[in-house]
Specification:
heterodimer; A: about 130 residues; mainly alpha; B: about 375 residues; 9 helices
């Protein structure tokens, strides 16, 4: 189980880390009770300051994904699925469209974007 | 004996320098980040050939100098001079090759990868095995006290085991102090290796090699500590008649030779694995498999691939992910933004200190203090 970040990206590193870990949390690769690497270990491997990784972990903890109790390490929690609101649905639609526009502006062909979105949709609809 | 040791040391330097161009990652060449395909080019072969010819000429000159000056009055000074000459020439040849390679450098991508699993300790037995040398030394100190009592004279740090000089309180405590200081330094290095280094690759054959290389380094450091503690035990327990004085000395020399051979073998094995992997189809297939993505990399107007938004898909990590400018002269790593104390060397086997990290200077201060204490007392 691996994450990647691009330090040259305009997206802050801590958000890239949080987003990458969230993918594994959502698709079930990381299960409740699993341990994540320590802040020190992850910051060493990604060549980032400790505070950057700590901020990423805090972000996920505030979303209810992680337990950061001192002395116990970083543990994945069993997070109840929150109920969505119309504002959340509107927000994610807007973000998806913005991301697609950004990727198209980077030069990716629309057909390839569509194929990737179909693959993601198929994986979401598969029974777990 | 001194001449033979000097010749052997210079020969080992020559052999290790001969293999160092192939003992690093395929996209690192003389501490410069390159396209791995460049290694198979005619220009690359020419640079390596010129480097190796210089290495062997300097090695031959050093060996001849030591051999021809054997038996003279200043043999030790001349041997030291030959050694320094060989090292200086090797550094010059490295810098010359690095300058030639720099014209073919590629920019380091900003892609960094990390495993999401906690790192396991590479030392079987964990803390107990790490602490045991100090526990044994403490027990030997108690034994020395029981046998000799407290030393009545000032204790000097000495390396005089009981089979070299008659046992006494001063020598026993002096030897234990020396062994304890050396074990402290080795333990500090082990700690830095396990807690202060990073894994550049989280998957693939090179991640396996990284783990193996760290494991070999830590186990060798541990082995040296146990060997030293064994020496202390042999010396302190003078009543244990397991062998004669001559047998102990011969056995000790064979043990040291075995350790040196094991270290050289481990280094060559790792470098052989590196060179074998980057040339085989398996390596290139693993690269393709790692970079294959549902969303393909976009092509720019010039036809060269461009990076895409982070989080969507990754490119292959190039080299060790560190800009070449952080490696001063290709030998010294200085990066204040890197939290690692010890990093993988870009040239040759082993690790290097990050001189941009204050803890690296603390470590150097500890080593310097221990060295001064040993030399002065």
């Amino acid at each position: 189980m691996t994450i990647w970040i691009d330090v040259n990206s305009s997206v802050p590193a801590y958000r890239q880390i949080a987003d990458a870990i969230r993918v594994h949390l959502v698709n079930g690769s990381l299960r409740p009770g699993d341990r994540l690497p320590t802040v020190r270990q992850l910051s060493l491997d990604l060549v980032l300051h400790f505070n950057t990784v700590a901020e990423a972990y805090r972000t996920l903890a505030e979303e209810g994904w992680l337990d950061l109790t001192r002395g116990r390490g970083t543990i994945v929690l069993k997070r109840p699925t929150p109920s969505t609101t119309p504002a959340v649905r509107t927000s994610y639609k807007l973000r998806v469209r913005q991301l697609v526009a950004e990727v198209r502006a980077a030069g990716v062909a629309p057909a390839k974007i569509a194929r990737e979105l179909r693959d993601i949709a198929d994986s979401l609809e598969e029974p777990t | 004996m001194t001449t033979a040791a000097g010749i052997l040391l210079i020969a080992i330097l020559g052999v290790s320098s001969h293999f160092t161009p192939v003992s690093t990652r395929p996209d690192l060449f003389f501490a410069v980040t390159i396209d791995p395909a460049f290694r198979g080019s005619a220009e690359s072969s020419r640079i390596v050939r010129r480097y190796r010819i210089g290495i062997w000429i300097s090695t031959a000159v050093g060996i001849l100098t030591v051999a021809l000056t054997a038996g003279t009055t200043h043999v030790k000074s001349l041997m030291l001079g030959s050694l320094l000459f060989v090292i200086a020439v090797q550094i010059f040849l490295f810098l010359q090759a690095r300058s030639a390679i720099s014209a073919h450098a590629v920019p380091v991508t900003g892609i960094r990868e990390a495993a999401l699993t906690p790192r396991k300790s590479v030392v079987p037995g964990g803390a107990i095995i790490l602490a045991s040398p100090f526990i044994v030394l403490a027990a030997l100190a108690v034994l020395a006290y029981a046998e000799y009592g407290l030393p009545r004279a000032r204790v000097h740090i000495v390396f005089e085991p009981s089979w070299v000089a008659p046992p006494s309180a001063t020598r026993a405590y002096g030897l234990l102090l020396l062994l304890g200081l050396i074990c402290v330094v080795l333990f500090t290095v082990e700690l830095a290796l396990s807690k202060g280094t990073r894994r550049v690759n989280a998957r693939g054959p090179f991640s396996v090699m990284e783990v193996r290389s760290h494991r070999i380094s830590e186990l060798m450091l541990l082995g040296i500590q146990y060997l030293l503690v064994f020496l202390g035990w042999l010396s302190i327990t003078t009543s244990v008649s397991v062998a004669t004085k001559e047998e102990v000395i011969v056995g000790w020399r064979w043990a040291m030779l075995a350790m040196v051979a094991a270290a050289i073998g481990a280094a060559l094995w790792n470098s052989r694995l590196a060179s074998r992997y980057y040339k085989t189809p398996e390596y290139w297939l693993s690269r393709i498999a790692d970079t294959r993505a549902p969303m393909a990399r976009p092509e720019s107007a010039s036809g060269k691939p461009t990076s895409i938004a982070a989080g969507a898909q990754r490119e292959q990590t190039i080299g060790d992910g560190i800009p070449d400018g952080c490696w001063k002269l290709g030998l010294f790593y200085y990066n204040p933004e890197d939290p690692a104390v010890i990093v993988e060397k870009r040239f040759g086997m082993g690790q290097s200190l990050n001189f941009g990290n204050p803890w690296a200077w603390v470590f150097l201060a500890v080593v310097a203090a221990v060295t001064i204490i040993i030399l002065v007392r």
